[in-house]
Each structure stands twice: as C-alpha cells, then as structure tokens.
Amino acid sequence: GGALLSSALSDLIRLSARTTMRLPILVLLLRSAQPQFHAQTSIFVDDREVLITANLLHEDPLNVGKQACDELHIGEPQGELRDGRPRCATLIADELAESIFCNVSARGALEEAMREKGLEGPRGAFRFYHGTNYFDSEEYELLRQLFLRLGYVECLSGERMGGAEDAIWLLGHFDEHALFYANLAKHTVANALPNPQLLGTKDNLYRLLDRLRDAVGDRATKFLPRTWLPDDIARERALSKSDRLGGLWLRKDPGQELGAGIKLITRWSELEGCANCILQRYVDRPFLLNDAAAGVVDAKFSFGVYISVSSLAPLEVWIHREMLVLLATYPYSGYGDSETDHGEDGDLLAHLTNGLVNQRLAGDAFDAAERVWTTDRLLKHFEQAGVAWSDVEDQIREAATMVFLASREPLLESRSKARTEGHLFCHWRLDFLLDADARAWLLEVEIVPSTGTIGGVDEVIKTSVLRDVLALNGVGGPPSQLEAEYPWLNGETWTDLASPAEPPNTLTPTPDAPLALFGDDAERMAAQEAWNLLEERGDALRFDAPSMETIGRYEARSRRRGGYRPLIPVPRGVEGFDGKMRAPAPRDDDLAELFLARGAIAADFALDRWVSGTRLSSAKDAEPFVSYETLDAA
Fold first, then answer.
1. Which of 176, 214, 508, 545 makes an SS bond possible with 194, Cβ 3.0 to 4.6 Å?
2. How deeply is 562 buried, as exposed, middle or buried, from its count of CB atoms within 10 A (0-12, 13-18, 19+)?
3. Which of 14-28, 52-66, 557-571, 592-606 shows the lowest mean pLDDT across its residues?
4. Nearest of 330, 432, 294 to residue 375 by alpha carbon
5. pTM for the predicted model, two decimal places
C-alpha cells in the first residue's frame, strides 16, 4: 500500500486488522496544497457500520476514540483494559494510529507535512509483538507507560509490522529462521536476539558450560549446583540400590517456566512422569535474611541480576546494579531426609523464592512490600552481617562472563543467520542463590524475565531497569511531559516510607539521559571524540574506520547506560554495585585474555584495546591494528 498512499490524490486503501472488536481499517490520505491526513476506521454497532475519522495533524486519536464511544454509548459492555484504559476508545485510537504513524509511507508523509507546518509529532512509534494469547498482557503495563512517558505512540499489538516502528518489544523468542527478522526495519530496535533458548533452558545452559569446562577447567561450572541431565539420571539410578536419592534435590522440567515443573524430592520414584527433567542438588545451607521490624525471620532469598547484550559482534554485555531480591514467604528451618511431602504449599514456600509461586500459593500471607528488596537494602544488610559484597559481586561477574564465553559463538551464529539490519538486543536475568558461606550459585538464566509487576518495591525496581535497558539500546530521553509516570526516575533517592523495615528499601536511579545522546549523530560525535583522544595519545593509526564506528557505538551507549555497568569487554577497573571503583579480583584478572582467546573476532580486539586504556601502547599490543579483514583471516 505504500506506493499508492504516496501517489494518488485520494486513494482508498483497505487494510485488514484482527482485534477484539474486529475493526477493518480505512486509511484516506489527501495530498494537496493544504495536506490533510485522515485516518478512518469502522466499527459495527447493532449490525450498522459506523465510520470514525481523525485528522492526525490536529486531533489526538485517543480523544477521537473516547468521543466516538460516548456518542455511540459504548462503555460498560466493552469494559476496561488491564491498565485501566477504556477498551473501546483505546482500540479505536490504536487503529487510527496504526494507519498513519505505524505505516512507513504514511508516517513519512505525515512527518514531512508536520515539519512544514512547524508542528511537533510523537518521538517515535512502538509495538508489542506477541501471539493471540498475550493481548492486554500484564507484562506490558510498565513498558507501555515508559514508552508513553517518552512521547511515543503505540501501534496495534500482535503479530504484525508496519515498517515504521522505532521499537518493538517481543514477548517470547524466535529462532533465526523466523519471518520476524526479515520484516524488521533497519532503524527498528527490538529485544529479540535469536535462539536465546540456547542458554535459557536449564539443560542447554549446563551443556554449554560443561563444554567450556573442557577448555578452561572447573571455573566454568563451579558456580552451578551439582546437576544431572536425563542421561546422568538414568546412569545414577541404575547404580542406586535404594529409592533414596541421598539428600534433597530439585526436580526441574526444562520446558516449563514461572515456577512450574519444580518439585523438591528425596526419592528416585518422584521422577516418574518427567522423562526430560533434570536434577539439581539443593543448596541446603542458604544465607538467611532477618529484619524483625518488618517481620522477616530466617528468610531464604534469591537475587536476579539483570543483563543486557547490546551487540554480539563485537560482544557487548552490561550488568545492572539494581537486582531483584526475592524472599521466601515462610522461615527456613532446614530439611530432614524423611517421609515429609515436600510438595506441600507451606513447605514449598519456605524453600522457593519465585515471586509468582509465592504470591499464588501464599495468598494473603504474601507481603509484597517485604518479600522484595532493593540492592541498597541487601547491601546494607550484608554490611551489618559482616559479608564483603565485593567478594559476592566478583563471583557474579565471573559466572556471568563464563555464561557468555560458553554461549557467544552459538548466539553469534544464530544472529548471523537472522537476515535483518535492525538493532537486536536482549533483556535477560541471571538468578543466583547465596549459601551460608556467601558463595553464589547460579540457578538459571531467565531469557523472558517478567516485566509485569505486583506494585510497590517491585514496580520501582523494574521501571528503573526497563527505563535503562531501553535507553542503553537507543530508546530514551527526558519525559515528554512534566507530570510523567514514575516520578522516582528523576535521579533522586526513593525510599519506601510505608515500611517499618530497618534498613528500608531505597533506590537511587540515574537521571534520564538527554536526547543528544541518542541517534546516529550521538554515535558519530562519540567516535570523533574518541579519535581526537587517540590522536593526542599517538594511537590513532592503530584503529581503522570500522574500529572507530564500533568504538563510537559503544561510547554512545556507555554515556546513556544509566544503572548498567560494563561486563564485556572486560573492564580493567570495576565500578561496583556499591558505587566504589576497584581493580578486578586477582582470580578474575585474566577474564579479558580468556575472552579474547575464546572465539573473539576482530571487532572484539579493537574494542578491548579501546576500553583497556593503559594497554594501548603496551609491548603486548605493539603490532598495528591493520583491518578487520586481516585479523579475521588470521
């Protein structure tokens, strides 16, 4: 339809759309001396078709939708969407916006006309991409408000693309052959690295790390609890002379998520009916949290560390300082190798920290305000308990680095097969458990971490992280209106004053990045500044043009990273979650060299040379950097 929209004086294009209301779209574009952009949609009321028209140069689609629904007396039968917006008006508004702002040809003509008239349009357009089961999902509530806060307009959600989307948020994942990638426009940003299940299922993750162990030794898997895959289970069960496993184990079904498929077991017979399950030795001496003022007594906890991969070639991995700390509902009192049914809800809620599981099973006993902690609160608790956070963070960094050493090559191969020039990134979470000796154990990699919320502390944490992951990957800026959603994102410290906790939950997000840090101009400016610095140091000739483009993109992202800290390329100075700068731990000082020796490409070497700083003129790197082709050939 793009060619027709831009050619005829009054072409009528019928576009099909499938929504709850089944609204066929009619788009009318009139181009003359006084251009008018009319978006039309029709709805059926008592078998009568009613046309609704909006001139998007002057009218807000949502207001048009509200007026139409009021005049047609459409209200309560249609109800509200999950976030409180009226269903009728919202669907009409989305249809109208879809036809102009989300259609690549129509939007281009509209923006040109608005510039001629000195009018300011939306900063961009976003779409939630999902299957039919996820329409109006709670997973979109926080993200929608963050996009609207920036002045973006929403396109219709679902399995569709119009070519004009600036950002697409995918609920789920695809392999590299999905048509999604072929249809993704070059300027579009999407959280859609292909084939993340390579490390997102527990059995695949273990296989990747076990393979890495052959090359780097036990450090590749020392952070994993003892794990048996189905073949291991069959072998060990054949050797066992009794039904007892010996100790407590977690039975996990790799194909299930959100806490489903997890069971605490002590006997082989409890594996019946789960042929693909894996077994993981239960960490039976967990570190416990106590806060008597808040009613927290001997609570087992896990902490989720948010990760974003902004590039695979070169590999750029960022780790967010704001963790999602989840506490079990009931006190932990250990376990006994007895006939206890570990599947009982009360028993599970002392062992499992999954927020959805605890909320579902505990009901009114689940206190969302005290069962979710911020990083600040956890670090202060550690300080009071005499635990050195820097030691814990070093373990987290090494484990996360090993995960990407193990998965980088297969992920890069999948990315190269996904035929798209769009910018792909990921929003993942690594879930850890701390034992009584302050040793961190990696439980799993969440490739589709929940973006929905139970409110309170959970909402503050997730909006801070989601705001930052969007900005890091090119979608951000200050709010488009003064009274925007999420006032705690203004850079000031947020404190949960309603809680009696001591210390309380606090969070200090970074201020919104200025608009000047986004777009191609920001990358070119960052590259030029890097080049100027290299010239001053006499190192400019060591970097070719593609290297400087790589550095420019990395530096632009670094300046708008918010709460993210660099993980790969491995920094030579660590900015800890506690805000302190320090050198890497002695056991981690070879991570950079280890990464470069494990499938690194030319762009990785160039970026590592840049971030290492002091290594730019070292004897080790004395050979000049000639070109990507030369290094790739080598």
1. 176
2. buried
3. 14-28
4. 432
5. 0.87
